[in-house]
């Protein structure tokens, strides 16, 4: 992909600003009506390389967002990945381990349920809404040297609807994602590269104190 095309996307890897894309932003990639879920997975696999693939510093999240945005959500493509445990806030369904460099998952979110506030274990996370809507709150990462408890500071709050795409990494901050709807599930597609949270765990944070605790397996 050309540097001109990449420059047209907000929040490039050098700026680390939170950003999201809709299908309107990806006209340079061609006709998204013919772009299938299988092609999306193939393009992600090809971009991320072999099992010795590119280091996370060389991943341009604008490219990953563009692939995600190009795909128009079609439930027939991913219905088989929507297993849902109603006893949990959300259920993670693995779509593919991409060359050992990334995990692609479909998450099903129960009504008015969400994730804890968490980091991303020094990885990139790209999220696309496949159905329903999700609310994201981004928080400043607390300074471990501050020496006292304090509530987390909100940086940004956004509600994403079907086919919108968002990106976050630890340089942007922490976040919490939840389904605001009272009576319907939400479905989202998540790409984590590298898959550090699954391999090594990640940190969750208390909103009122800013204290963190380590979770050893993504759940």
TrEMBL record:
GO terms for molecular function: cysteine dioxygenase activity; ferrous iron binding. The keyword Iron applies. Keywords: Dioxygenase, Iron, Metal-binding, Oxidoreductase, Thioether bond. Fe cation binds at residues 118, 120, 175. GO terms for biological process: L-cysteine catabolic process. Its EC number is 1.13.11.20. Pfam families: CDO_I. Its cofactor is Fe cation. SUPFAM superfamilies: RmlC-like cupins. It catalyses: L-cysteine + O2 = 3-sulfino-L-alanine + H(+). The keyword Oxidoreductase applies. It is an enzyme of class 1 (oxidoreductase). There is a cross-link at residues 125-192 (3'-(S-cysteinyl)-tyrosine (Cys-Tyr)). Binds 1 Fe cation per subunit. PANTHER family: CYSTEINE DIOXYGENASE (PTHR12918), CYSTEINE DIOXYGENASE TYPE 1 (PTHR12918:SF1). Belongs to the cysteine dioxygenase family. This is Cysteine dioxygenase. It comes from Aspergillus sclerotiicarbonarius (strain CBS 121057 / IBT 28362). The lineage of its organism: Eukaryota, Fungi, Dikarya, Ascomycota, Pezizomycotina.
């Amino acid at each position: 992909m050309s540097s001109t095309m990449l420059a047209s996307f907000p929040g490039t890897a050098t700026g680390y600003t939170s950003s999201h894309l809709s299908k309107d932003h990806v006209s340079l990639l061609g006709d998204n009506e013919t772009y299938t879920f299988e092609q999306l997975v193939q393009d992600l696999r090809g971009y991320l390389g072999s099992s010795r693939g590119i280091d996370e510093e060389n991943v341009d999240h604008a490219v990953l967002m563009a692939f995600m945005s190009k795909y128009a959500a079609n439930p027939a493509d991913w219905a088989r990945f929507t297993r849902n445990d109603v006893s949990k806030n959300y259920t993670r369904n693995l779509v593919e381990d991409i060359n050992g460099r990334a995990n692609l998952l479909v998450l099903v979110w129960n009504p008015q349920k969400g994730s804890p506030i968490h980091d991303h274990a020094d990885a990139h996370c790209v999220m696309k809404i496949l159905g329903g809507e999700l609310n994201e709150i981004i928080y400043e990462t607390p300074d471990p040297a501050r020496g006292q408890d304090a509530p987390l500071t909100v940086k940004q709050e956004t509600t994403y609807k079907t086919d919108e795409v968002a990106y976050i990494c630890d340089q942007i901050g922490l976040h919490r994602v939840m389904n605001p709807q009272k009576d319907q599930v939400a479905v989202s597609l998540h790409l984590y590269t590298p898959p550090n949270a699954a391999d090594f765990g990640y940190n969750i944070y208390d909103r009122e104190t800013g204290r963190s605790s380590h979770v050893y397996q993504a759940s």
